[in-house]
Structure formats: C-alpha cells, structure tokens
Specification:
It is an enzyme of class 4 (lyase). About 40% of the residues lie in helices and about 15% in strands. By secondary structure, the chain is α/β, with parallel strands linked by helices. The protein has 14 helices and 13 strands.
C-alpha cells in the first residue's frame, strides 16, 4: 500500500519515508508527519483519521471525549463562554491515550514486540494498558516522585515499572538511550516519536465537529508541549482541507511557576527556550524541565507565536484553587495538571482583559490519578450513629 504521508524535519526540511526514527538524520531536528495531499474525501476528520487515508481503528475507545460548557465558570469569569474538553474521560484517564494509541499502531506496523516509555505517570498508564491489549512487553521509566496512583495503575496492567532518581529528564534520556541501543520502540510522548504526537491533533478534529464555530482561545497545560502543537496542527489541516473562514484559535500554553522554561522564554521575548534545572511543582504532568531537549520547548514556543497566542505560568496555589473550583462549580474532578488550564485562563483573562470570548480548556487528566493535594487538604469527621452528633455537623 502506498502511504499518503511522510516524515519531515521541522528544521532542515529533509524528508523521510515512514519508518521508526526519532530525530532528523541530518540535523537531529524534530520530525513531524506531513501529507502528500489533503482532500475532503477522507474528511470524517475524527481521531480514527489522524493519518488521513490510513484509518486507525479505535483501540480501547480513545477519543470522542465530551466538550462541556462550564456555565458557572463562564459566569464567574467576565461572561466568557468557557468549555472543557474532557480528556480525563479517555480509557486510562488522560489525553495520553490519543498519542499512545497512534504510537502503538505504528509499533505493531513496524513489527516491534517490546516498547519503552519515559513518563511522569499518565503516559505510563496508557502505554501499559495498550501494550497489555496487544501483547507487547512494556518497560516504563518514571521519576522517583511519581504519584502512587499512577504507578499502581501501570503495574496492574502488567508493565515493568522502574523508578528513576531525579527529574523527568533523567527518565527521558535513559529511555531514549535504551531504545536506540536495544532496538525497542520508544513511545515517549514528547516530540521524540513523530507518530505519537500526531495523535494529539484528534482533539482539534473533535472540537471542529462539536462546535458551530472554532474557539477564540484553546488553553493547554504544557510540559514540552506536543499536545498544544498537535492541536494547532489539527486546526491548520482542517483549514487547508475545508477552507474555513474561522481563524485558527490562539493557543495559550500554561506552565507551573516551579517549572516554566517555555513561559519564561515567551515573557522575555527570547528566541530559544532554556531548560529548567530543578523543576518543583505539584502538577507533575507538566513538570518537565526539558533538560537535554530544550529544542522541544522552542518548537512549542514558535507554534504559540504563530497562533498569536501566549504562554504564562501559575502558582501551585492557583492550581489547587482551580481544581477545587472545577469540582465544586462544575462537578468535574481533574488532577492538578488538568486544573492548570482553568488557573491559567483565570490569570490570562485578567492580564489581557479578555471578555466575551469563546474558550476551550484542555482538562487533561482524571483527579483520581493524583490524590496528594486532596489527601493533604481534607479531613473527615467520625461520629457515633446518633442523631445528636449528626445534627451537630450538618
């Protein structure tokens, strides 16, 4: 079968036939999937068609997540019309199922029996689940401080979990080295695998189907940023295919103050992102200091600027407050990294005086995946089974 896509270096533009490579063989640049032609004939434009005419079947039911209007949040935030893209409703509880499903399909196509991933937790669970489904042996490297909920979820699928001392970057470097030396397929969901982050653009396809008009802003919690870049790429392809009049949404990346290499570069109007040596944040899913691959951050920074978007950082306290607001106002329980989208837009809307805009927040992960902030914040009273004590507490 003649494939409609190829790999292209985002820096030197060298092209490669589809194969399992992780960086440009000429300049070590980031690779992306490009297409020989984009036509309306393949445009059901859903997650299953991220590779266009090569249909990817839904492997565990990933994608097609709800786009919910957050009415109380909209009323509270200057009458902006705010929607939540509920990525925490993917099979393993996070958006990572999209890129992992795409990557697993390629691992099978290329004949691999073993995979490895470096993850802060969500990608680990996803790779473990999809590997179990398709009989692949999976090794998962996570930072030593990864929440127990995420580690145990991955273990339950039968994966080989190994904790690596130090920040996420240590796990990333070790997984890359092992995959290159041992011929094991690397499913790390940064920009290292061009097929995985191609899966992220399915979010844009679905927003297009679920909305009468495209949002003015898409707010994305980011570490390295492949989700943000993938969504932008999806809207760009849709515009090319359909010639839509809607402008491509402004992409707004949100980072934690304790790990903010991309937002720092944006705010200082710098050309290149410099890695964060010592990441510290409760939002582990976006706590990526980019050590050894700061070029990933630069690529995301350039995409944000192309979209006329922005990037800003928020405190852990703002993240916790947003997490509580989503739960108490909207009945939505997300992990700290997912709540960063709301916390970021609250700050952004005040800084830029944004009113009456259409906004989509990427709610990236389920709150059950990281209970540390909840466990520290709440105590539950215990009473005798008598009315007097019950009335005293109600």
């Amino acid at each position: 079968m003649s494939l409609n896509y190829f790999l292209s270096c985002t820096e030197c533009k060298r092209e490669f036939n589809p194969r399992p490579i992780y960086n440009c063989l000429s300049c070590n640049g980031i690779l992306e999937v490009q297409y020989k032609n984009l036509t309306k004939s393949i445009a059901g434009m859903k997650q299953e068609y991220i590779f266009h005419d090569e249909k990817i079947e839904s492997l565990l039911g990933e994608g097609n997540t709800p786009l919910l209007e957050l009415s109380k949040t909209s009323n509270r935030l200057r009458e902006n019309k705010i929607f939540g893209k509920c990525e925490f409703m993917n099979p393993t509880g996070s958006f990572k199922d999209r890129p992992v499903a795409a990557g697993i399909q390629k691992a099978l196509d290329f004949g691999y029996k073993k995979v490895i991933v470096a993850s802060s937790g969500n990608g680990a669970a996803s790779v473990a689940a999809y590997s179990a489904k398709f009989g692949l042996s999976s090794t998962i490297l996570v930072p030593e401080g990864t929440p127990d909920e995420k580690v145990k979820q991955s273990q339950f699928y039968g994966a080989n979990i190994i904790k690596v001392k130090g920040p996420y970057s240590n796990s990333f470097e070790l997984a890359l080295k092992y995959s290159e030396e041992e011929k094991v397929y690397n499913l790390t969901t940064t920009f290292i695998n061009p097929y995985t982050w191609e899966g992220d653009k399915g979010v844009a396809y679905e927003i297009n189907q679920q909305s009468d008009n495209w949002p003015d802003y898409v707010i994305v919690p980011i570490g390295a940023g492949p989700l943000l870049v993938g969504i932008y790429k999806g809207f760009k392809e849709l515009k090319e295919i359909y010639g839509k009049n809607d402008p491509i949404p402004k992409m707004v990346g949100i980072q934690a103050e304790g790990c903010s290499p991309i937002s720092r570069a944006f705010e200082n109007n710098e050309v290149y992102v410099i890695s964060e040596p010592d990441p510290k944040t409760i939002a582990g899913g976006i706590g990526d200091g980019l050590r050894g691959y700061a070029k990933d951050g630069t690529y995301t920074l350039n995409t944000i600027r192309k979209s006329n978007g922005a990037c800003l950082s928020i405190t852990d306290e703002e993240i916790i407050r947003a997490q509580e607001n989503l739960a108490k106002d909207e009945g939505i329980f997300v992990e700290p990294s997912g709540a960063a989208a709301l916390a970021g837009f609250e700050k952004f809307s005040k800084l830029e005086n944004i009113k009456n805009a259409s906004v989509t927040l990427l709610l990236t992960g389920n709150g059950l995946k990281d209970m540390n902030t909840i466990n520290e914040s709440y105590t539950i009273p215990i009473i005798e089974p008598v009315m007097e004590e019950l009335n005293r507490l109600i």
